[in-house]
Amino acid sequence: MESLRHHYGNPLAGQGGSTGTRAMIGRDEELRTLRRVLADATAGHGGALLVHGTAGVGKSALLRTIGAEAEGSGFRVLSASGVESELWLPFAALQLLLQPAADGIENLPDPHRLTLSDALSATETEPQLFRVGMAVLELLADAADRQPLLLLVDDVQWADSSSRDVLRFVARRPRDLPIAIIVASRIHYPESNSLSAYPDLLLEPLGRTAAAELLDLGAPGLPAPVRALVLERAAGNPLALVELPKAVKGLPMEPDDLPLPQRLEEAFAARTDTVSRQCRTFLLALAAEPNAPLDRLLRASSRLSGSTASVDTLQEAVDAGLVTLIGRTLEFRHPLMRSAIHTRATVADRLGVHRALAEVMDDMPERQLVHPAAATLGPDEELAARLERFADVSQARGKVAAAVPALRRAADLVHDTQRRTGILIRAVELASEINDRVHTQLLLDRADPRELGPLERARLMVVSDKAAFDPGEPHRRIREMVTTAAGAFDAGGADTAESLLWWAAARCFFQDGDATVRAETAAELARWNPDPDDPHVLTVRAYTEPYRQGAEVLARLDAIEPDARDGRILHFLGSGAMVLGDTGRAVRHLSAAAGVRRSQGRLGLLARSLAGSWPRAYLGQLDRAREESGEGLALAEETGERIVWLGLKATGGLVAALRGETEAAARTIRELRAHPLFPGMPFATVMAQQVDGLLALFDGRTTEAYDLLARAFDPADPHYHSVSRWLLAPDLADAAVAADAVPEARELFAELPALARRLPSEMMVVAHAYTDAVLAPDDTAEERYAAALAALPVGWTLSRARLRLHHGRRLRRRRRNVDARNPLRAARDAFDQIGAQPWAEPAREQLRAAGGSSRRRHANTAEQLSAQEMQIAVLASQGLSNREIGRRLFISHRTVGAHLYRIYPRLGITSRGKLAAGRGDLALSVNGPDEASALHASSCENPFKSISWWSGWAFSCTASLRRTASRRARNTTWNGSAAPTPAARRPSSAARPGARPTTLGPTA
Predict the structure, then answer these.
(1) For position 938, what pLDDT does the model report?
(2) What is the per-residue pLDDT for 919?
(3) What is the mean pLDDT of residues 228-253?
(4) Residues 636, 609: Cα–Cα separation, whole Å
(5) What is the pLDDT of residues 32-46, one digit of tens each?
(6) What pLDDT does 861 receive?
(7) Cα 64 off chain centre by
(8) Highest mean pLDDT range out of 193-202, 430-439, 611-620?
(9) pLDDT tens digits, 459-472
(10) Which of 345-354, 464-473, 723-732 has the highest average model confidence (pLDDT)?
(11) Does 944 have pLDDT greater than 50?
(12) Euclidean distance between CA atoms 3 and 218, whole angstroms
């Protein structure tokens, strides 16, 4: 029998492709899309694509066709299919996929080799997913260095969750590798099966013309009424057009209500009528356990049929065109064949084959237990207990992915509804732990809240709040969480109660709960009489009542020296400091937490800790903030951390605005505002409004800028946040001066002095000092500027530079040009070092107008390299190998090499050694020998600490190169790459009606 690929094809060889394989009818556009993925991979720009559509629409045929074309064009093709019975087996689909490339495992470095060996063999413990993902990525990258790779995975909806997670990890990282990944799924879960930023490909039914052509090709000469009936019933489904004509005599001649997949299964199943009962029994065993050893399948079918099944049984199935033998593995001709045979069998035969398989696989516990579970109808308390014990053992060994389906089945087998709900809650918790959001939600839907005690209700609420952070009715939800936490605490579940109260407190910040719910949350915590220095307690207090309890929390934070190895405690302390505006401490603790979580490979938690990039923007650490927010955003997308995504996206927009990248900033904020959770998250809306206001200010639209920023101080406006609004105070003060709206701004800031006394965090100190000076009347301005500069916390470089620019401008306005030069020069130098272009040019202009000289600004390294390239350059300068850099950034070592190949010409160097040399030059020329030594030591502990001074070194090197180059060369190319762009054009000074004309852009 011909393969289904030929049934789907046009007999004219070569049409639609160049490999000689038969072209698929009606799939020209889809094949072009897949061929583009192959072409990009051939050029070293790999990618991934998810093909999804209904049963029989041609996904498998499409994968086979593109696989054949890829082999013909020099690709090595690795393929596998998901199998329902292997959902319990971690990495089962991955093992099948990697079998042909397994010889390369021995050539991997020891950590990767041992990780893959553990993952792909029956070891006692299961390695962490990210370690497996990294090992697989390196295995594939090494293999692709010799020959382009195509990975094909069919029926990914049935693949085990561990394999799916590894595939998602790898599929996001082949962009500098000759690797293409194409998977197919019947069901499209955007949060579960989507593999990358590449668009998904929805496979639609064939159009009328293509459907008729395919039908006539496979079944020429059909009587007109039968042909019309098949076309109508098939509705463009290619598999139906191929299979229904063969079984048309078995179908009613009048339309009915049977769904198409059931008709297809009937058509497939009818083709087994001509084989012997023994062969049908064998096929049923194969359908139940497709990847079992053939000898086990033969033994199971022999037990069920009562006669010996042999190799002749296999041959009969092959000769009938139902299966194909590939090596020592049997495969059905089409995935629907499996379900068709299973559906056609009687209930007794189905249960019997599972019992027989359980008997012949008694030495394979992970596979064996699947079958008695499938062979049981109704409650079975003993089997449910066995499944729970299996889940216990799996969880203890780290095989959480195997425990979840076991618990799900155990819940089906118990009679007591309360016990069933308890089992489901445990399954939900484990599914949430491995970030399996689809199964988490499905299990949540099955739990019966009427059967929950106070502790179980709290456990369920903790998980459901992680699974679905509903932005609607935040105050009601917070109250519900606090009440439930109280019940759990009183029932003896202190740990669960603490977790739930933390989530309630987090909502008080993210959704800016009103004073009542904040007080209720804080009061419940106080009722427990907790340790006042416990990091969890301090964070809850910071989240809930920052103005009432902030001063005490800050004082207690001063006395805590956390364990540098405890990522959880570091994150608690850092996030608590961040929401209070204690930015220096927040950056310090969250950076340390990120280091711990990076070493552990906990990518979702790492994304949360990288939210520490947010306060870096206000400190003026723009390069570092750009790198961390970019990395964190990618990890948040990968792990489904939606709330973290909002914060990191907003940070990315803010950093782009502060760097003068107006188009990127505007685009980022548009994407942020389009997110469905955005409207209900004031912590993000206030940042979006800040960026919009800054962009208007930089563009000279001063009145509009003031109006935008002032809205963030209106409690009735959706952009208002009761605490975070004070981060916008300096910007609003700038806009007020430029738009001649100083009295209005003073009114908005009326409560600031009192609040700053109650919450003396860095954010509040800066807001008060900055606005007090910038908005001061002329007769007291000098003393207020002096007081403000003295009050600004160490590290707030950007605010200090902005304040000096204002001071210099005011001095110039009073014709004190000589006095203005020092603050203007200091401001210019700081803006250049930071990379804050929207202020650097106005400072330069003001300095020239004051009679001071001002050198032309040159682009620094951070402007020439992407965020990830900057990270790689810094790590390489410290002597890390490509593999070490790859492990830190969760990318392939070959991707690191590709980045370095592009980095060198942009920096005007030719080797890795030059990076290290430049690193030393910077430390000496910019920081002096003492500080250089300190920076070197600290950067060895944390490689990302060196990024701020790396930019300075690049500025120094670039300036040196420019001084020795001819003036003409500035307008051509530099070391083979595009010449660094000149300084940004001065922002327009055109103001809207009512605004004061100015040449100072954002500071006027």
Answers:
(1) 38
(2) 55
(3) 75
(4) 11
(5) 999 999 999 999 999
(6) 64
(7) 30
(8) 611-620
(9) 888 887 654 556 66
(10) 723-732
(11) no
(12) 12
pLDDT score at 865: 84
Check if the beta carbon of residue 1001 is closer than 8 Å to that of residue 838. Answer: yes
Query: Per-residue confidence at 80, pLDDT binned at 50, 70, 90?
Result: very high
- Backbone φ and ψ for 128, nearest 5 degrees, come out as -65, 145
Q: Which tokens go with 856?
A: 């032309």
Q: Could you tell me which residues come within 8 angstroms of residue 104 by beta carbon, excluding any fewer than 6 positions away?
A: 139, 142, 143
Quick one: three-class SS letters along 17-31?
Answer: CCCCCEEECCCHHHH
Residues in the chain: 1004
Q: Report the DSSP pairing between strands 323-326 and 977-978.
A: unpaired
Q: Closest by alpha carbon to 168, among 128, 116, 133?
A: 133
Longest CA span, the chain: 108
Average pLDDT value for residue range 311-334: 83
Distance in angstroms (rounded) separating the CA atoms of residues 238 and 248: 15
Contacts of 775 (CB under 8 A, 6+ apart): 733, 736, 737, 742, 745, 746, 749
Q: Is 348 exposed, middle or buried (0-12, 13-18, 19+ CB in 10 A)?
A: exposed
Q: How many Å from the N-terminal Cα to the C-terminal Cα in the chain?
A: 81
pLDDT greater than 90 at residue 295? no
What is the amino acid identity at position 723?
V
Give the per-residue pLDDT at 667.
97
> Alpha-carbon distance 196 to 163, whole Å?
16
DSSP per residue, 554-590: HHHHHT----TT-HHHHHHHHHHHHHHT-HHHHHHHH
Contacts of 24 (CB under 8 A, 6+ apart): 8, 9, 10, 16, 31, 58, 61, 62, 65
E strand segments, 74-127: 76-81
**For all residues of the chain together, what is the average pLDDT?**
82
Give SS3 for 981. coil
459 and 496 Cβ atoms separated by less than 8 Å? yes
Please provide residue 94's backbone torsions phi and psi, each rounded to the nearest 5 degrees: -65, -40
Work out the average pLDDT over 85-103. 87
Residues above pLDDT 70, as percent of the chain? 83
Q: Distance between CA atoms of 288 and 342, rounded to whole angstroms?
A: 8
Q: How confident is the model at residue 259 (pLDDT cuts 50, 70, 90)?
A: low
pLDDT average, residue stretch 670-696: 96
DSSP 3-state of 389: helix
C-alpha to C-alpha distance for 186 and 55, rounded to whole angstroms:
6
How far apart CA 631 and CA 606 sit, in angstroms, is 10
What residues contact residue 364 under an 8 Å CB cut-off, 6+ apart? none
Residue 339 has a pLDDT of 76
- Pair 603, 639: CB distance under 8 Å: yes
Closest CA to 980 of 830, 837, 829: 837
What's the rounded mean pLDDT across residues 219-238?
85
What per-residue confidence (pLDDT) applies to 685?
97
**Nearest-angstrom CA–CA distance, 870 and 624:** 9
- 572: closest CA among 670, 638, 506, 671? 506
Question: Is there a contact between 725 and 982 (Cβ–Cβ < 8 Å)?
Answer: no
Give burial (CB, 10 Å; 0-12/13-18/19+) of 500: buried
| pLDDT for residue 604 | 87
DSSP assignment of 588-638 equals: HHHHHHHHHHHHHT-HHHHHHHGGGHHHHHHHT-HHHHHHHHHHHHHHHHH
Using DSSP, state whether 11 is helix, strand or coil.
strand
Distances (CA, A) of 908 to 872, 894, 905, 911: 16, 22, 5, 10
Sign of the torsion angle spanned by Cα atoms 227, 230, 232, 236: negative
Residue 94 neighbours by CB under 8 Å, 6+ apart: 80, 119, 120, 132, 136, 162, 163, 166, 167
Give Cα 800 to chain centroid, integer Å.
35
Distance, C-alpha 294 to centroid of its chain? 41
